[in-house]
Design a protein that fits this description.
The chain is an all-alpha fold. It has helices spanning about 5-25, 30-50, 55-75, 85-110, 135-140, 145-155, 160-170, 170-190. Helix 2 packs across helix 3, helix 6 crosses helix 8 (about 170-190) and helix 7 packs across helix 8.
Amino acid sequence: MNPSQKSISKANADSADAVLAERIRRGEAAALDDVVSAYAKLIWTVIAGILGQTLPREDLEECAADVLIELWQHIDRFDASRGTLKAYLCRMARSRAIDRLRAAASRQTDPLDADLPALDDDPTDQIVTRDTFAHACRMIDSFPPDLREIARLRFLFELTPAEIALRLNLPVATVYTAVRRGKDLLRAELTKPDTSAHGNGIPHSLRPEPRPE
């Protein structure tokens, strides 16, 4: 498909989204059926990608239904000038799936886990900022396999230990131990001496790239 065809295709999709949204605003039930026909598979894929085998299929189905109900009841929240209906539904599906995962994690957390030290006050977490995200990704990619996924979920996606435990089907204490190991590795990187003349004490690999003048 050449650029001109892509432009036409996008314009047609945007126009179809606008018409579909307007029909929902008018309360046309058939419009919601059209949304289901066009986007149900996409919504399910996003939700299943987050919840996976963690929760029963019924929870995934309810989560997908929540997305459609929210679209129907709050269509005015969709702003076509900020993106397509497809992208909007993806964001809603992701948000609802994460909410459901966190709710399930809070229900299933072992009371003994309350005795574990807090994980959220460690300044090591602060390396994963907008400027250091790429560096953190590379560091975590070098972690041992048994630690890598837990570190990604904790430091990059900011899931709690209970949420990670539910997602990976692991004891929370095991996740806690892995997170501590990950922080030790990150801390070791943070405390490496800087050999540059103007390092200001910040490890070279963690400093943001210079901004263009």
